[in-house]
Amino acid sequence: AIADMRAAMETTGDMRGRARGQLRLAVSSIAERFLSGPFLATFAEANPEVQIDITVTDEEFDIVAGGYDAGVRLGEVIEQDMIAVSVAGDERQLAVCAPAYRDRFGAPSHPRELAGHRCIGWRRAPKVAPYRWEFAESGKEFSVAVAPEITTNDMALMIKLAIAGAGITFGMEESFRPWIDRGELVPVLEEYCPRFPGFYLYFPSRRNVAPKLRALVDHLRRLG
Predict the structure, then answer these.
(1) 207: CATH
(2) Residues 82 and 55 in one domain
(3) Are residues 12 and 79 in the same domain?
(4) What is the C-alpha separation between 224 and 211, in angstroms, rounded?
(5) Same-domain status, 116 and 39
(6) Average pLDDT over residues 86-104
(7) What is the pLDDT of residues 123-177, one digit of tens each?
């Protein structure tokens, strides 16, 4: 209700519907295209009266209660009562390692063989179990609880460690793509890594959408 009132006040406060004010966003750290730079830079240039405040977080919480205008998350974790606008197309997660690691230890032929490999894992917060690596076989999804030798909440560190030959790591293909293209990382287990709906900008379903948020949605749709 408070969010509705705020949006209505912002809309009626400027009868021309000009985008203005602070736009608070909670964005997943692995939403590569949204956070890459060009999208937000062009939006800021087109809307000079909007001040963008971005919190990069992988915590799952109520964005309305947290005081955010919108969030960016994978579609599968967005509440059903939210409006969701696609940020990009389908995504997939990949297991990758350095060519030197593959040449020394070999590549697993099935996810169950990961138990015999050195792995670099991810966790979203302290005291939280490492993320279970998700795969699919013959149309059936399953997850593997690897026992990482190294665990962190920082994807950049995971990539550096994998390039250095510390083991196999797992994450969004887009996060690894520059290093895959340069040959510094190689995918493994690709046949068990299907595509799925990717990231969405989401916000509460309500009648009044503030001009600053409407401008962001329109910008996203134009570039999409």
Answers:
(1) 3.40.190.10
(2) yes
(3) yes
(4) 20
(5) no
(6) 94
(7) 988 888 999 999 999 999 999 999 999 999 999 999 999 999 999 999 999 999 9
Number of domains into which the chain is organized: 2
Rg (CA), the chain: 20
The structure tokens 């040449």 sit at 103
The boundaries of the domain holding residue 219 are 2-90+197-223
Task: Answer yes or no: do 97 and 82 share one domain.
Answer: no
Specify the length of the chain in residues: 224
The three state secondary structure string of the chain is: CHHHHHHHHHHHCCCCCCCCEEEEEEECCCCHHHHCCHHHHHHHHHCCCEEEEEEECCCCCCCCCCCCCEEEEEHHHCCCCEEEEECCCCECEEEEECHHHHHHHCCCCCHHHHHHCCEEEECCCCCCCCCCEEEEECCEEEEECCCCCEEECCHHHHHHHHHCCCCEEEEEHHHHHHHHHCCCCEEECHHHCCCECCEEEEEECCCCCCHHHHHHHHHHHHHC
The reply to whether 188 and 97 lie within a common domain is yes
Burial class (CB in 10 A: 0-12, 13-18, 19+), 203: buried
- Exposed (0-12), middle (13-18) or buried (19+): which is 81, by Cβ within 10 Å? exposed
Q: Which of 60, 59, 72 is nearest to 23 (CA)?
A: 72
Which of 69, 100, 77 has the alpha carbon at shortest distance from 206? Answer: 69
